[in-house]
């Protein structure tokens, strides 16, 4: 058994796997003998079925299965031994008829692979912002803590200090019996100007109807009521009903030891000054993470734009036609490839950076990231002091979902790549406020 390569160019080739009959004959015969020993055929005792009868019925299937296995193994071994980073999957050349009795069998595969190139990150430079939390942001974050543990105070009517719980339902026409759509729930304040204006004159259980056209034209109102643009477009009915389910004021929790303990655990924070310092450090860390990601994205944009990455375009056209039954012509495949070129180059560059910098994943990395996600989710609800053992239990449960494993693994890989780019890329260090940073992101 051997594999030979005939290069078309720097990034594509025809790989031919050649099998001798002797490569698979013995294994096929062993399987046939085993079948004969265990076959139950009417008229014959178990183990006494003639081998010739077993061969006639099973030899072709067993032979083709063994040939496919050996061809696949040979192809994979060749790719691994030659460290080829394939783009797409091998495309088998058409075979009219495979004769398993022939002395020699040849099977050809078209392959495309990534080009050889190097990336010097030091020659790419981008702004690296040092973002600090302002007093205003620290105060707002502390107020949010106070709201989480606030006391609800009933009100007689909606006012500017009200928190208003809404139920938003599609209005079903009389001739649409049987249709059911789950209502949306939203809680708004006077800061949600459009929604507040809509319901501020209503009483408890009062409602108002809003047309689909109004939601489509007033994106801010739709957003405040919990609708995305796509959801508005796909509403099944012409109107929605916005109903007031509750409204109340909040007595913010006092800034005292009880609140400090509820948020961060007993005795961790003992004064307002310590609280402000803690909140500032958390916000600074969060803002800096976003600034680091912004820097990395800017560097990757430059790398993708300036590095010459040759794609195996002729092969990719063949692969698209082979792998997607909805693609009916070469012209259609070329159009799809043209639309995907930028993303393909980006993926190749990302993979190259990971390979060259020996970025690898293990279970401990993925588990640690899952634990951090659990902590982040708990923090949203003001839970900061759950024990490590409990957090790990939730993380392990999360990793039973293969889609979660895939997504978290991708996040870990990107985090490691981020660290490499932060270390090796060129930086223009710049101090900036968070508001200025948000403006920069809008650009």
From TrEMBL:
Domain of life: Bacteria
Entry keyword set: Coiled coil
Pfam families, A to Z: Trigger_N (PF05697)
GO MF terms, alphabetically ordered: peptidyl-prolyl cis-trans isomerase activity; protein folding chaperone; ribosome binding
Signal peptide: none
Stretches assigned to coiled coil: 320-347
Presence of the UniProt keyword Coiled coil in the record: yes
GO biological process terms on file: 'de novo' cotranslational protein folding; protein transport; protein unfolding
Official protein name in the record: Trigger factor
Source organism per UniProt: Chryseobacterium oleae
């Amino acid at each position: 058994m051997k594999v030979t390569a005939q290069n078309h160019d720097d990034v594509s080739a025809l790989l031919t796997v050649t099998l001798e009959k002797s490569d698979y004959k013995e294994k096929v015969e062993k399987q046939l003998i085993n079948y004969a020993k265990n076959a139950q055929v009417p008229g014959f005792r178990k183990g006494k079925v003639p081998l010739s009868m077993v061969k006639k019925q099973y030899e072709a299937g067993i032979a083709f299965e063994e040939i496919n296995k050996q061809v696949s193994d040979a192809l994979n071994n060749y790719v691994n031994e030659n460290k080829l980073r394939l783009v797409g999957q091998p495309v088998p050349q058409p075979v009219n008829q495979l004769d398993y009795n022939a002395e020699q069998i040849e099977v050809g595969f078209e392959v495309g692979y990534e080009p050889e190139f190097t990336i010097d990150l030091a020659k790419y430079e981008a702004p690296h912002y040092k973002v600090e939390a302002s007093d205003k942001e620290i105060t707002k974050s502390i107020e949010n803590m106070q709201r989480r543990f606030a006391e609800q105070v009933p009100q007689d009517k909606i006012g500017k200090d009200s928190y208003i719980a809404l139920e938003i339902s599609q209005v079903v026409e009389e001739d649409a019996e049987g249709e059911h759509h789950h209502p949306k729930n939203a809680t708004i304040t006077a800061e949600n100007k459009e929604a507040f204006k809509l319901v501020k004159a209503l009483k408890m259980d009062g409602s108002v109807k809003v047309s689909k056209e109004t939601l489509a034209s007033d994106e801010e109102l739709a957003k405040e009521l919990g609708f995305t643009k796509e959801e508005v477009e796909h509403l099944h009915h012409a109107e929605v009903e916005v109903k007031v389910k509750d409204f109340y004021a909040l007595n913010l929790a006092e800034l005292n030891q009880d609140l400090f303990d509820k948020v961060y655990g007993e005795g961790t924070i003992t004064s307002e000054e310590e609280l402000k310092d803690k909140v500032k450090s958390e916000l600074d860390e969060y803002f800096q993470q976003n600034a680091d990601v912004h820097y990395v994205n800017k560097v990757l944009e430059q790398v993708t734009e300036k590095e010459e990455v040759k794609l195996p375009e002729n092969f990719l056209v063949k692969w698209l036609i082979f792998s997607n039954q909805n693609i009916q012509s070469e012209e259609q495949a070329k159009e799809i490839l043209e639309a995907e070129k930028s993303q393909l180059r980006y993926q190749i560059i990302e993979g190259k950076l990971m390979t060259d910098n020996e970025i690898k994943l293990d279970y401990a990395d993925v588990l640690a990231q899952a634990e951090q996600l659990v902590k982040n989710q708990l923090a949203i609800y003001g839970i900061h002091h759950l024990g490590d053992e409990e957090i790990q239990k939730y993380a392990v449960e999360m990793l039973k979902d293969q889609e979660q494993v895939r997504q978290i693994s991708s996040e870990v890989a990107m985090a490691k790549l981020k660290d490499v780019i932060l270390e090796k890329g060129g930086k223009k260090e710049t101090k900036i406020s968070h508001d200025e940073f948000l403006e920069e992101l809008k650009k």
